[in-house]
Amino acid sequence: MSISRRNAIAGGLIVPASTAFGSQANSKVQVAALGTGNRGSYDTRYLAEDPRVQVTAVCDTNPASIDRVKTAAPAAAQARVFKDARELFTAGGFDAVLIATPVYMHPEHFELAARAGKHIYCEKPAGASVSGVKRLRAAAGAMKASQVVFFGFQQRFSPEYLAAEQLLRTGKLGELLLMRAEWMVGGIRTNAPKPSEEQLARMWYPWREKSGDFIVEQDCHGVDVLNWFAQAHPVSAIGGGWKGRRPFGNNLDHVNVTYAYPGGLPGYLHGTQLIQTAGLVREQFFGTLGSVETHRRYYEAAYPGQKPVRVASKREITIDALEAFVTHIVEGKSYNMADVACDATLTSLLGRLAVDLKREVTWEELLKTA
Question: In this predicted model, what pLDDT tens digit does every residue of 260-299 receive, in sequence order?
């Protein structure tokens, strides 16, 4: 694990703006969107709204997705269109790339972007398998310090999450005793009709081989926050779960995982996609002096004998992450969070393996699987 990369955001290397992006120092950052499905269109829309950015290329194998991203981001209406990632990077003409392709493609596309010398904003997670994560980490390790690398772990750039984290760092919560992450959401109906063959051909998220399972594709957000607050990845995990209620695909239905962090600090993960009521997505951190709850829309601190204090988020936190990405490029600040993303993804894979094997699994054992 590279400590220098982990802490690159704090007083990172400063490079000239002309080095940070290929065009003139005072021009816009030229961005290509690779993968223009739901998440890709969402991210591209916010990037296109940044006055420092120009979306100059979009790439997807699905023409309908290309149309969707140009509708979501009108500023990208004149962007060049590509159907193949390799053709996109061969053509060039852009400084940074947004990677929002299916999870199992992230290592390959990240590797192409890294070798092409591009700044990278890659959606989470870092891959669908241990071998994929290792491939991405190797590609990131060979990059130049001037290349900016962000991943879609938006919580790390939210002012509210950062404020909550400072409560722990400054000792206001005392010694950290327990951590919890809950990702209890809906969206999967057990009685849903089977999609058509054409729809199934385009789907990737219901299959573990392509998504890593929902504990990897979705719950990596929660375990990344646990890793962040613990300032470490877990040393082992035990877990339980089940499958069989999904109408198609081979992902799990539900997981409960207990992670053991250094020093015996426990971190619990509870996740599902099958609830049919309002979801529950949050993290909680309990210390000897107080506790804090984090959420994409707020954080709430509580101390004995005092009324809890809740601070609401001012906007959707994806904007915070994307703005930080562009700022680092424009200001020439070195930052590579690939190690953070790889550790979060491996933590999810560790939990998945513990559920599969129905026993405790160590970090070292996980890494030896590929």
Answer: 999 999 999 999 999 888 889 999 999 999 999 999 999 9
Q: Which two tokens stand for residue 183?
A: 């990702």
Q: Model confidence at 213, in pLDDT bands (50, 70, 90)?
A: very high
Tell which residue, 121, 80, 105, has the closest CA to residue 70: 80
What would the mean pLDDT of 314-325 be, rounded to a whole number?
97
Q: Tell me the whole-structure pTM to 2 decimals.
A: 0.92
Domain extent listing, the chain: 3-153+327-334, 156-319+348-367
pLDDT, tens digit, 9 for 90 and up, residues 222-238? 999 999 999 999 999 99
CATH number of 3-153+327-334: 3.40.50.720
